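Now for a specimen:

…
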Amino acid sequence: MSLSKPIALATALAVLSSPVWAQRVPKARLLPVPASEWTDAHRDALGTRARGDDTLDVFQTCLRNVELCRNWMTFTNYILSERSSITPRDRELLVLRTGYLCRSDYEWAAHAALGLRIGLSNEELTRIMGGPDAAGWTTADATLLRAADELHRDQHITDTTWARLRERYDERQMMDIIFTVGQYTIVSMFLNSAGVQLEKGQTGIPR
């Protein structure tokens, strides 16, 4: 059921004015590997995402397992690149909804900023938290968000949602949708469990 306009407005205002919850793990369990300790293997694992002291903590923390990090970066770079067959907007709708459902403050903060850069509005960011039944989505956007919800909840897209997605997406795009949600579920599990802390100046999911 969709929210009525007064309720939707009240919800949006409450979200925007509410304080940000503390991260689930208030102190890092796994510390980032500082750039001063990197070897060539560390730098090679991160590739173009190696930016010295400015490297994001999610990547510096991943360096605690260099071989895993090297292989994960291949997958990450594919999902975030133009090689993926879905649009950046569709990708960010999936990533943000997945990060929200996983309660990953770090993921939300990073991709809310990225979402705004690729054309999502602040109003849409608020609506993502409301899910596929929030008022204002097109049928296509609502169906995409519903797929993220179903994958998060059941690790399965229902026949109805699959059929609706197939009206718009080909087989390759369907796989990219599934693997994008899977990628950011893995990332959220890592961030939440390792306690990777927000980057300086970032805020997490509004609660």
In short: The chain has two domains: 35-79, 85-193.
